[in-house]
Every structure is written in C-alpha cells, then in structure tokens.
Amino acid sequence: MEARTALRQGPVPLAVRMRPTSLDDVAGQAHLLRPGSPLRRLASPDGTSGAVSVILWGPPGTGKTTLAQAVAGSSGRRFVELSAVTAGVRDVRSVMEKAREQADLYGVSTVLFLDEIHRFSKAQQDALLPGVENGWVTLIAATTENPSFSVIAPLLSRSLLLTLQPLTEEDLGLLVDRALEDPRGLAGRFRLAPEARAALVRLASGDARRALTALEASSTLAEDDGAGEEAPEITEELVATAVDRALLRYDRDGDEHYDVISAFIKSVRGSDVDAAVHYLARMIEAGEDPRFIARRIIVLASEDIGMADPQALPLAIAAADAVQFIGMPEGRIPLAEAVVYLALAPKSNASYLAIDAALADVRAGRIGRVPMHLRDAHYPGAKRLGHGKGYRYAHDGEHGVVEQQYPPDELVGRDYYLPTGNGFERDTAARVERLRTRVRGTAPDAS
C-alpha cells in the first residue's frame, strides 16, 4: 500500500491513485448522487432489490469509471469489470454464467462494469441481455457516445440512462487541491501557485483525468527544477511546459472571453476566413464550451448571411448537431467547416433588419386589426360577422399570386424586408419587387 501512495513510486498514475472509494468522495455529478438515486441504491449493501442496471453517458474524464468503482467499493457486492476494447462474446457469457452460479448457490449479486459499451457489436450486446433481464448481474455501462445510436434498444429499455456533465471549475479545483495534499497523491510535498492552479483547471476543460495528469507532470518538473527545496513550487510556466501548450489568457467569465468571441463574430461577418478560424482555434484551445460556439455560429448564419445564402443556417445547425453527437475533440472539424463556409458566404442582414423593424412597429402600437377577409371563417357565426368575405385563394391566380390586401390598414405599403444585391438575394430582390407590385396591385400585369 505504501508503494502506491508515495510520490512517483510505481507505475500507477496520479489520476488512478486519487480515484474515490465511495460516492461521498466523488466531485461533481451532484444531480446523480442525491439520496435515493439509482447510484445511491446500487452502492447500498442492502439495496439489491432496488438496484437497476444503468448506462453512464458523458464526456471523457467526468467520472464514469470512478462512479462504477465507488459503487463497487461501497456495496460489498461481487464486482466484475470488462472493457469493450478487449472483451468478446465468450468473456461476456463467462461472466454471466459465473454470476448466475453465485446468485443461485450463494445468493451473491454481481455488479458488471462494462467500459466503452459503444465499442461492442450488436452480437456482443445481445450476450448481455439474459444476465440483465434475469437479474444475474446489475450492469453499469459507460459510454462517451449517444446510447440512442450506440446501444441496442432491448438493452436500453432494460437500463436507466444517466447523463454525466463536464466537471465545473469548482469541481476541478477541489480535485487538484485534494491531490496536492492527499497521502495517495502528492502528499503535501509541493506548493501550487494560484496562477498554476487556475491554468490546470482551465486546461482540463471539464476533464478530471486531464487535470490530474497535468498536475503530476508539472510536479515532476517542479521537483527537478527545485532540487533541494523542502516544498518546490509548481508555477504557471511549469504547467505550460508540462502540457506542451501555451497558456491562453482566456477567462470564460472575463474580458478575454468577450473580446475573442466578439473578434470571431466580426471576422466571420467581415469575410476574413483566416482570422475567423484563428479565433475559433483560440476558443477551442482555451476550453470554451463547444455548444456556446455552435450557438454563435447558428446566430451568425441567420443574422449576417441570411437569405444571401439560405444553406448557411442548415449547415450551422448540422455542425451543432454533429458536435453534440461526436463530442470533442473531433467536434472541432464540423465547427471549422461551418466557420469556413460562413466566412466565405455572401452576406446579408436583411432578414435580421426586417424582423427588428416589424417588432419596433408592433411595440410602438402600429398593429391594426386583421382585415375581415383574412379572419378565420370556420367557426359557426363567423360568416355572419363578415369573416372571410371577399378572400381570394392565392392558388387560383396566375403564378399562384393574386392582388389582395394582407397587412392591417395602418401598415399597407410598409416594407420590412429589403434584400441586398448579394448572393442569392440578387435574384430574391427582383422577385420581391415583382410580388409586391402584383399583390398590391400597383402593376397588375407584372409576372
């Protein structure tokens, strides 16, 4: 045991040495650890009857393996661990047979932890079903990919899906502080500069394993750099050297956050594709939430490109969906594709200006009554009130357009959408003018 706790002694990484042995020591995931929750019932030695198989879905480093092993350590049940990377159908069936024997002969329940279940084929996942369905094992499966696409439906229906969230900066700070002082970790042998602590938390991007790995590497450099000192200091510079990357001055709640996202938006709007990709890279490298970046890209597609290229918005939404589906770091690729497309696309804010102008009129009280011929005429008594009288069905007109008043009287002739001459709007502008003159009757013969 002493060999595992001494600094840099043996091959066991700091992240493994610091893994909690009970759910009470787990940092983060409070929404999954409330009293009476499925994980709490699994961890209770007398909670076998309430135990249910679970699938833990979340990004790397959020504690899936930690939760499974903490459950095992707390429950006292027989615990078996398999990895989908190395296990096959024969291994699964062997575990199931052994679990059935233990349950039948000794009344011992088995918890099976299956890591990376998304790597299992359909046949391998099918082999799990008898054990889960008959209660021979309580399955705890972990995956970084959406189980709706990577886990077979029969197994999903027999398990409870629990979603893990990226660790907060407070959670990561707690883990770093604990590892610095805990006898299993660095045992108080180092001092950690506040700037270095902030850098470790920032670079971890919600991943506990990454934070502890960087701390361990930094401590190695600090020990060499401060040879002979009683408590060598881990500095921000040592952290940067250990992880081999520049420490970006980027506080997600500070000025740099707003400056970089502002420069990113303006670069896309200004059609500077290289600057746009640069600022995207800065946000990704600093650990910005990719969902935040994706949301900004969607807004850009509508606000600054709009009808100049109607494909910009579907592409931006597809990139956001792709990031949600595949996660990071691969998610950087669809984000970059969307950013390049948007930066190179023709620009128009006409749709954005149109809705804001319409909203301004509505808020100023320029609304008026809906014309009688456009009002709902389907309910009893509506026609007696004159609703729908004189309405002209557009499809009966040439080109599907008829002369007719659509806005309230107060807004007749008010133009909100003013298309530019850019991209797709070059054709749209001419069509808008033809439609307005035909609908309004200012040039009845226009087509």
From TrEMBL:
Gene3D superfamilies: 1.10.8.60, 1.20.272.10, DNA polymerase III clamp loader subunits, C-terminal domain, P-loop containing nucleotide triphosphate hydrolases. SMART domains: AAA (SM00382). It comes from the Bacteria. The keyword Nucleotide-binding applies. SUPFAM superfamilies: P-loop containing nucleoside triphosphate hydrolases, post-AAA+ oligomerization domain-like. Residues 50-167 form the AAA+ ATPase domain. It holds the Pfam family AAA. Keywords: ATP-binding, Nucleotide-binding. Belongs to the AAA ATPase family. RarA/MGS1/WRNIP1 subfamily. This is Replication-associated recombination protein A. The lineage of its organism: Bacteria, Bacillati, Actinomycetota, Actinomycetes, Micrococcales.
